[in-house]
Known about the structure:
InterPro entries: PPPDE_dom (IPR008580), PPPDE_sf (IPR042266). Keywords: Hydrolase, Protease. Residues 6-153 form the PPPDE domain. This is PPPDE domain-containing protein. The chain is an alpha+beta fold. It has one domain (6-154): PPPDE domains (endopeptidase fold (from Nostoc punctiforme)). Helix content is 37%, strand content 22%. It has a five-stranded antiparallel beta sheet with strand order 4-3-2-1-5, covered by helices on one side. A hairpin with a 2-residue loop joins β2 and β3 (45-49). It is globular and about 50 Å long. The model has no long low-confidence stretch (mean pLDDT 91).
Amino acid sequence: MSQDASKxxxxxxxxxxxxxxxxxxxxxxxxxxxxxxxxxVVRGKEYYLDQGIQTIPVNSVAHPKYGQPIEIIExxxxxxxxxxxxxxxxxxxxxxxxxxHAMKYDLFTNNCNHFTNTLIEFLCDSQLEERILKLPDLxxxxxxxxxxxxxxxxxx
Length: 156
């Protein structure tokens, strides 16, 4: 464990780039603000799920794939050092029936937000905000949500 606490942030991106807010009332019958993609930032590194667990240095301009975060959530602090964090990431890559590998990804039940939640729980015993974690359930519980899920599964 390191002596100094390190700040933990969650970067929140909108994969729809604003379209979810505009189109969701028509498609779902209610408004959602975004299609969230989240990552965990600690000590200048961004950890996220995209075709498996990825790590990149934090870029002050924008994420190369997701652009600028629409929100940065201050989650807490951790005393977990880099070697223990890397060991945990390695364990996630190799356990739980490869839960965080690309082949196990599921937009509704096993996505980047679930990974973010697992990582911040490990780092500081915190949880990702429910408005982000529960968004797939909210969508699936709508009649249009079930139709969208079938379309996605049939085209996967």
